[in-house]
Amino acid sequence: MESVAEIERRMQSARRSFDEVKAEMARIIVGHEDLIEDIFIALVCGGHCLLEGVPGLGKTLLVRSLGEILSLSFSRIQFTPDLMPADITGTNMLTDDPSGRKVFEFQRGPVFAHIVLADEINRATPKTQSALLEAMQEQNVTVGGKLHRLENPFMVLATQNPIEMEGTYPLPEAQVDRFFFKLVLEFPTHAELSRIAELTTAAPLGPLREIVDGSAILQMRQWVRDVPLAEVVKDYAVRIVLSTHPQKQQGNGAAMAQKFVLYGSSPRGLQSLILAAKARALFAGRPNVSFEDIRAMLLPSLRHRLILNLEADAEGIGAERILQEIVAQVPEIAAKSQ
């Protein structure tokens, strides 16, 4: 069993790295503090993120900068309707070996990087989307009957434009569910726009400082899973997820969920919620998960996992509003435990 001193050292190390990453990112990224925190949490939890926002909000810059700070390789894939699976995973090419004979050699695709930005993933055909999502789930690709492992840590950040939907192929719910978080990029405020103009029209800043590397990320990934979770806090998370299912609600169920939700969160949503809450507690320097950690990680973990009915679409009701009502109505301690 680990000593108290070792646990404290671990928490201090994780929190120091987390704070340094945020501070370095703030040199070049204006705003998006919560977004940066959530992406880093997803990375150390071994998950992938779906980013939703209009063009020009700095998604590519954010992801590339994060790769530099974390000393990780970065690649960007621009999804288009004519993109083929081999353009992502790679393919066998006919080449000459040293003796002059013709041999097939595997040429790696852009998916072979630590951080992969899948730009406008909903513009590619379902076949191409599936190739990337398979790599996300299995962390390997198979070409010509041979298995090729992806680098670890491995993270996909896929973007979607919520406005321009013409000529797109929306991701099926089963594939969206494989994303650890869905994060929404908000438009900058007046002060943030002013700061963006100042940074981007002046002399470029110096190179970003490397804070942590891949091995440190993998070490923190284990630390996250070791964070204790009290039974009462776990029960709170379970009751929240159950409250997203109209047919599973008992007692104080959320009325909006009963009216507008066709199908609630999958078990992956609960796993994401608890793992993210553990990471948040670790980076805050706390020895265990709190109720507030669960609430803070609720929207990014579950907003993409609710399937709403036509009535919700007609009335303009979104998943965030339903989840906020669920949080307001689900008590921290179940009535039977009081």
What does it look like?
With 338 residues, this protein is of the alpha/beta class. The protein has two domains: 4-82 and 114-216, P-loop containing nucleotide triphosphate hydrolases (Rossmann fold), CATH 3.40.50.300; 229-337, Magnesium chelatase subunit I, C-Terminal domain (Helicase, Ruva Protein, domain 3, Orthogonal Bundle). It is built from 15 helices and eleven strands. It has helices at residues 4-25, 33-44, 59-69, 85-89, 126-138, 173-176, 190-200, 214-226, 231-243, 255-260, 267-283, 291-296, 298-302, 310-315, 319-329; strands spanning 49-52, 74-78, 90-96, 102-108, 115-119, 140-143, 146-149, 155-160, 181-184, 261-263, 307-308. The chain has a five-stranded parallel beta sheet. The protein has a two-stranded antiparallel sheet with strand order 3-4. Strand 3 (90-96) and strand 4 (102-108) form a beta hairpin. Helix 8 packs across helix 11. The longest helix has 22 residues, at 4-25. The chain starts with a helix and ends in a 9-residue tail after the last helix. The mean pLDDT is 85.
